[in-house]
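Workshop exercise sheet. Pairs work together: one partner reads the sequence aloud, the other fills in the structure field after running the prediction. Swap roles for the next sheet.
Pair: D.N. / O.F.
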Amino acid sequence: MVTGYAQKAKTKAVNSMAKPDVIFFDDFSGTTLDRSKWNVIVTGFTVNNEQQAYVDSAATIYISHKTEAAGANNGVLVIEPRFSSGYVTKEGKKFDFISGRLDTRDKVAFTYGTASARMKLPAGTGFWPAFWALGNGKWPDIGEIDIMENVGEPDWTGVALHGPGYSGETPLVNKFYLKPDKDITQWHVYSVDWSKDSLIFKVDDTIVYRATRPMVENYGKWSFDNPKFLIVNLALGGAYPFKINGVKTPYNGIPETTVQLIKDRKAKVLVDWVKVTRH
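Structure field:
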């Protein structure tokens, strides 16, 4: 017979065992980016015909506790693209836009667990924000997990997996459509539950896609047993937005209306927090 005291102790022990370990967390409560957790990426070239150069600048990546932080737990990470006509990278490449990209490579990596971020996204044709995880090594063999991907359309976000045999135009992809009053410009938690045999993607508490090992291995090698690091970025234009919107001018995948949003400083990705847990 189990006494009430013993039962409570047992329940407490079980709950303690079930509590996930937090292996990474940042709620951007400081005044500047915590560079012990994040790398700021600088690129002199782009892939996918994107129209931005990534720079390490307080103009494009900063922490805010002001208006942008409304509805956030503490401060927010802001990634804001800027119009910078004729910006020249150290490689001599010219761009008219600069933007921000952060990752945790060589700082935090994990194999299996739950990666999540609470984010607000900008609506505007050709914006290409993403929250994703990537392994070290040759792409796509190392595996890519796109936890949240958007091309500026307010009513949906996407998820995808890339690996050998299922990269680029991957068949392992899905869109999730949001209600009009809960579109991408509102706060949402984007997450993936990653185990040795499946990846379950969620928006808030809703499962939006499930990929199992047999599903993936129908196309190629399962590339999700190796450590992944996190990436948060805001790209502009390029192949994926162009595929959706077909805009050719004034920039590939970016219409003049979006250029004006950037000039008016109405194009911001806001991140309340990023977390990785593991049971």
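Discussion prompt: Residues 9-16 have pLDDT under 50 and may be disordered. What would you look at next?
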